[in-house]
Specification:
mainly alpha, globular, 8 helices
Length: 156
Amino acid sequence: MLRLAKALTEAGFDAPVRDNIRWNIWLKLWGNVCFNPISVLTGATLDRIVGEPALRALCKTMMFETRAVNEALGVQIPLDMMERRLAAAGSVVGHKMSMLQDLERGRSLEIDALVTAVQELGCLTGVPTPVVDAVLALVQERGRAAGLYAPLGISC
């Protein structure tokens, strides 16, 4: 693994080796669970999502729900990482999230990997995710209406 990371770094890629990859995956998911579906539903860029108070509050609620799920699975991420994640996202002016880019290009939407997964893990751990569930229902319908999403058919 270290040889691969070294080779990638020498080729100009960012290739850190992580001690606890689950921690990093969940931290990234904190943003993806909210930023991606909100972008599809609103057409907003990342800085707009984070800069608009109501959308930022929606993101934070979804992040708190996601945090409760990852904690139920034994992954502890300090709460201050939420504000750091939001601040970093807000600094990326004009960026369209990948799911919005997929919608605009007529490509299938990665709803299940980024949002449904949190809902399902919430169900498995007994952690309620009502706002994630509501946003998920909306983005699934948006994807179906565009012909870019077919649900897996799994539910709690």
